[in-house]
Design goal:
By secondary structure, the chain is α+β, with helices and mostly antiparallel strands. Helix content is about 15%, strand content about 35%.
Length: about 325
């Protein structure tokens, strides 16, 4: 029986945790090795990539930004920086034009420093911040560098105090913090009212399916389609093992030289000016049957060194 291997992209509904989605797929596929590619808060909907089987070992090699569509409520500040939290302060928002609001958002575009919410999964001396916050402990989180690639103002309602934005950002960005800081910049406070993730790494809404009902699927049939990891690792160079001897060497963790056949290394076509071996240190390795055999590092003198090895993928 073939081992399940790849990604299932869930359109996460509101009211369930990312871990709930993982547990649902564990039951459907009948395996324990399942993991998600980036937590979504229970109230947040949208794209949640879930790795099945040994594909969990590929999560660290995914690359790309994340994108969201959110509603920010001006005038309300909460302890969690979203509408589900406890109201700390309420103020009337000023009269502001959409053009002036858009100009104000300029200060949040590009590389900025952002302080995570105190109700977050950030570690503080081995303990999650949200656990300390729930106990009423007072602490401050250090700001960290993030990048807001795009911040588009979709609409602004003066009467409701709501702005709808689209955000494309680096991993580690908190949209709750963005909402809080926009409100602070305006002077009235704000919190995140609603959020949907539309992209995570190379996964988007077109790849996603609804979270399967826990009673809808049986272990032997009707499982969700598993997407091949190679479709989402195209930013990596690739290398195909050419013989059974190389396959055995690979599975034994031995290095493989290709200095006499450097054309076997295929570089990603992201930016031709940067397509050099030195710019692409990680390599996606395939066996003779075009199955993913693992991930390698490129070393000097045209040698690939096993980093992640899959002995047999169905």
């Amino acid at each position: 029986m073939e081992k399940p291997f790849g990604f299932v992209v869930i359109d996460k509904p509101a009211g369930v945790t990312s871990h709930d989605c993982v547990n649902r797929l564990r039951k459907i596929f009948g395996i324990k090795k399942v993991g998600h590619g980036g937590t979504l808060d229970p109230s947040v909907t949208g794209v949640l990539p879930i790795a099945i089987g040994d594909a969990t070992r590929l999560i660290p090699f995914l690359k790309g930004s994340k994108a969201y569509k959110g509603v920010i409520q001006l005038g309300s500040s909460t302890n969690t920086d979203d509408i589900q939290g406890e109201l700390i302060e309420s103020k009337r928002w000023p009269i502001i034009s959409k053009n002036n609001l858009n100009n104000l958002l300029d200060s949040f575009r590009g590389e900025i420093l952002q302080r995570p919410p105190i109700f977050s999964s950030v570690h503080i001396k081995g303990e999650r911040a949200y656990k300390k916050a729930r106990k009423g402990e007072k602490f401050a989180l250090n700001p960290k560098k993030i990048t807001i690639n795009k911040l588009n103002l979709i609409s602004w309602s003066q009467t409701k105090g709501e702005l709808i934005v689209e955000v494309d950002c680096s991993s580690g960005t908190y949209i709750r913090s963005l909402a809080r800081d926009i409100g602070k910049k305006i002077g009235c406070g704000a919190c995140l009212k609603k959020l949907r993730r539309t992209k995570a790494y190379s996964f988007n809404e077109n790849h996603s399916i609804l979270l399967p009902d826990k009673n809808e699927f049986q272990l032997t049939r009707n499982k969700p389609k598993i997407l091949s990891p190679s479709n989402f690792l195209e930013h990596l160079s690739s290398f195909k093992l050419s013989s059974e001897e190389e396959v055995k060497s690979w599975r034994s963790g031995r290095k493989i030289s290709f200095k006499n056949h450097i054309d076997r290394l295929h570089l990603p076509r992201i930016d031709e000016k940067k397509d050099t071996i030195s710019d692409n240190k990680k390599v996606l390795v395939f066996d003779q049957d075009k199955n993913i055999a693992g991930i390698a590092d490129i070393e000097v003198d045209f040698i690939i060194s096993p980093k992640v090895v899959f002995n047999a993928i169905g």
